[in-house]
Amino acid sequence: MSHNTRSIDLNADLGEGSDYDAQMLALVSSANIACGGHTGDAESMRTALLLAKKHGVAIGAHPSFPDREHFGRRPMVIAAEALFASLLQQVHSLQNVAEELGLSLHHIKPHGALYNQAAYDPVLGEVLIRLVKAIKPIPRLMCLAGSPLVKQARNAGLQVIEEAFADRRYRRDGSLVPRTEVGAVIEETELAVMQSIDIVISNRLQSIEQETLVMQAESLCVHGDGE
Length: 227
Prior knowledge:
36% of the residues lie in helices and 17% in strands. The protein is an alpha/beta fold.
């Protein structure tokens, strides 16, 4: 009896001061490393990069709105040029440490509110596209599967990694339920596992309104700060 085997990239956001980074890096195939926008400094970046190198994990930069006070999770209104300059500085700070260790950036994944807003806001999307193109060699852009940003970035010539979440709930339009709402994060391990298997095996999941969403994801995110 033959089974179709499907594999998917497993990623986690790391270098954010969680106690589980070492365990997570032994399990994932990609890591998104905080680079100073919402948290992180040269020391935390080096620690995460060394662990990623040890485990052969693909390295991504995880830049954010420059908002350490709210951990990058609060929507921000910021001029495009100022945001671009901040994001570029964040990514370069990680890239510089990575290059010292003989590593290169595989992808860029925006963090938090920037990730969610840019998925649907073409102005922010354009900032991210400019950011990716400003990094050499040009990395991939990891963003919300099925969102308008996927098409926008591909039309701009970028390689895109469409991402789904093991432990976040979705609305019927494919957006993530905001963390400010009850039930946004799936706390129960069994439910997160079930959602993950649905995404990988059948390209679908249940929205919080109990409707079926079709989701073509190439990478699955598990949050590094959860049990």
